[in-house]
Amino acid sequence: MIVSNIETVPGKTIIEFYGVVTGSTVRAKHIGRDFMAGLKNLVGGELKGYTELLHEARTEALARMAKEAQSMGANAVVNVRFSTSSVAQGAAELFAYGTAVKVE
Hints:
Blueprint: E1 2-3, E2 14-28, H1 31-43, H2 48-72, E3 76-88, E4 91-103
Parallel strand pairs: 1-3
Antiparallel strand pairs: 2-4, 3-4
């Protein structure tokens, strides 16, 4: 599955549009990560636990979006975007969306 954050796939021609596809995941903060993040806030630096959590969430949301596109017969998703929102205290949704297309 080709995934592009622009409206086209360079070197390819879009021959069919299937519509909007989405993928999301809701992740909760981990108490161990929160403790370590609190310590990092005192001394500064990257919060690696949260970096890993967000990477996992993006990967999962993209995979779900691609699976939906594939089920429609698409071989690419263009104009991909991400969004986040808080759904409960300590939990957030990462949402990926784009347009499913067929390219050749």
